[in-house]
């Protein structure tokens, strides 16, 4: 296990609104270049890749020489449009390829089918950036699982995919010469809003049904923040049980970005706020690509913003 992380900022300051604004306007992370890392021969998955941050992560990975890119999308038509846009805008090398694979977080069957395809990759997938997420303006239950949709997509389905990908990495160690394998990389896209979550449900037993209560007052911002909080807590505990030699797993925040579909349901006011205070998707994607390609095992189970180690909700709540 990596040692105890140390930070150049207190958890309280990290969670402040002023610090959020400072990051948004003055915290642009540096871009990763091919001088920093060469991904030739590597395979990467990006979920939610048909637009916004996911599409930009895909473009940046290709610029690093990535050999095989899998665009994991719910809507395959949009995925094909994204694939063509990447192909037309990027000077692809002969060894580079882009594929569109179906992945619907609303369906456990779709997630299982997707991972079965991943298991067939040779020698294996190397990098996964799990970017797909939603922020509903109203309460909705997933008709297939019975869970509230923000919770389903941002937490339950995302963490299921993390666990299944770890199983893929583990199986690869039995079929491939270990000397030929470097640790896998899984980046779960998180948010600094996790530090602001009220998490009223934490006192409920059992916990999950409390999120699915139709009669509870709906607060879309708080629900989104709470799902990101749960994700950080899950990855923290997961890192205690999964060695970084198998896969380095962490949470990374791109910051508030415009050009993303995440806030598409939140109305005009939210759209204006995002455009005024947001950063571009290309800037936001830098932290995710950096986390997927540059961070060593000391970042296993940690939270990253602007390419720097930052206190997570675990650190904030422990004070």
From TrEMBL:
<dbReference type="Pfam" id="PF00106">
    <property type="entry name" value="adh_short"/>
</dbReference>
<protein>
    <submittedName>
        <fullName>Uncharacterized protein</fullName>
    </submittedName>
</protein>
<dbReference type="InterPro" id="IPR002347">
    <property type="entry name" value="SDR_fam"/>
</dbReference>
<dbReference type="GO" id="GO:0016491">
    <property type="term" value="F:oxidoreductase activity"/>
</dbReference>
<keyword id="KW-0560">Oxidoreductase</keyword>
<dbReference type="InterPro" id="IPR036291">
    <property type="entry name" value="NAD(P)-bd_dom_sf"/>
</dbReference>
